[in-house]
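Re-running the complex after MR caught last week's input typo. The corrected sequence lines follow. Everything else is unchanged.
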Amino acid sequence: MRRIIKNRAIYLMILPGFLYFLIFKYIPMSGLIIAFQDYQAYLGVTGSPWVGLKHFERLFTEPMFFTILGNTLLLFFLNLAFYFPVPIILALMLNEVRREVFKRFIQTLVYIPHFMSWVIIVSISFVMLSMDRGIINELLVMAGFEKINFLMSSEWFRPMYVLQIIWREAGWGTIIYLAAMAAIDPGLYEASRIDGASRFRQMWHITLPSIRSVIVVLLILKIGDVLELGFEHIYLLLNSMNRDVAEIFDTYVYTAGLKQGQFSFSTAVGFFKSLIGLILVMLANWLAKKAGEEGIY
Amino acid sequence: MVQDKTISSRIFDIVNYTLLLIIGLVTILPFLHVIAGSFTTVTELAQKQFVLFPTVWSLDAYKYVFSTNTVFRSLGVSVGVTFLGTLFSMLLTCLMAYGLSRKDLDGRNFIMFMVLFTMLFSGGMIPTFLVVKEMGLIDTYAALIVPTAINAFNLIIMRNFFQNLPEGLEESAKIDGAGDWGILFRIVIPLSMPAIATISLFYAVTYWNTYMSAILYLNDAAKWPVQVILRQIVILASGLAADTSGMDEFVRPPEQTVKMAVIVIATLPILCVYPFLQKHFAKGALLGSIKG
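Corrected-run output:
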């Protein structure tokens, strides 16, 4: 007790931040109970009638649910298969560069897109891919092909989504791998060189195994984000022509909840999503520990 | 490291450097294309398609963009929100981070866990929206700042930085009669300027890029920040989005050069701070990756 009084100034410093987390993070968590109610704005959380699992039942019987679940999982899988290895490869390449100036020059270039908002990234893509004077389509025509309506098609949505993520995040993603590589004992490389290992073999047998634990941690974090595919990014790309492949849980929550006012139902959708995400992180973490890695907690 | 001069190693280097150069260029060319395109005329853009150095320089696109009020107003909103938001976020983050950096504090681990847990689980969009609404923040500029005031990641970076300052400093200040507030503002903060600069820039970039808070919490188009306007002009004007509300100005689809000019305007501040940002962020990002 005396320690608390002694530290009252410190508690006062923490208070605003503590209130922030309480109000904007923990009250919304408790607000998840409206998923079990028929929430009416004028009755509030305390007055709205309880309906048990009605909204979850509706969720699992809605045909749209399986489309959304499928889209979410597929986009996640594509993200994992095509984006995840890119920063590792890029970091391996950068790590082999001995000229500091060149290395820094490339890093400067590839980090830039990370600081641009999704609106900017998607806007640039739109300007480049549009049917009307978009440079990519103009180049296609010059090369003797037909124009492609990239922005309004189901087939092109997924590649476009993955490429935009690679474009924006691949460079930034190298930072953590490069740091891990910088910590590798140079003696290992020297020894392997004396044994006659080529640069490729050094990468394969020394660099990669040395960053294994970092890769595992990032993989766990990524799996935890399974259902966090980026509301902003997909919302910006979404249109009536690609809805069948682009609609994910977040965009669906936004449309059903805020646009159509189905608060309780869309909260149930969001709850389902958050819960699956949490379970997946724990599962991935447990698996990592089983595999002899440290995990994230 | 000893250089390895075998032929295969040389070939490896040549291939590696060439590939990296191509990757670097591919990353940056779209931006250069847009910047150059915004400074040229519609005709030149139509003839050449890809312009890196316009032969005909023209400010027509910018003149057109600023002929209406929309972009100006939204720039004002973004500048204001970025400035005030960064100040507010830094104040809250520094106070809390410093408090949590004190090892003698009871309940410290509990609060840290509380912060970390928000990175794993959240109430989601609708319950958060209802809280923001209950607080009366809908259609206020505060809705762009307050609900996202502290970033848990940035908080942890700051806390780690404060924790690594030598303990002796605080003790000697205490002996000299300084209180906790005095120690924070006169000693800890002045010593932490590199970290503060980094995190401020992170916050500033986030506020400048604010988009989602605006579409969730602001119905009033006059209050929209520049990112939302950018979406109106480039993405909605392409006639592609399902939702075309708020398309009062720019009814006719704007020319490519105009779209490019708006992209440049929305990106410009980041291009300006990027050189300063770059000095620090690698370190910041690494600090943040060491959790706990």
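None of the earlier attempt is carried over here. The mean pLDDT of chain A is 88. Chain A has 17 helices and no strands.
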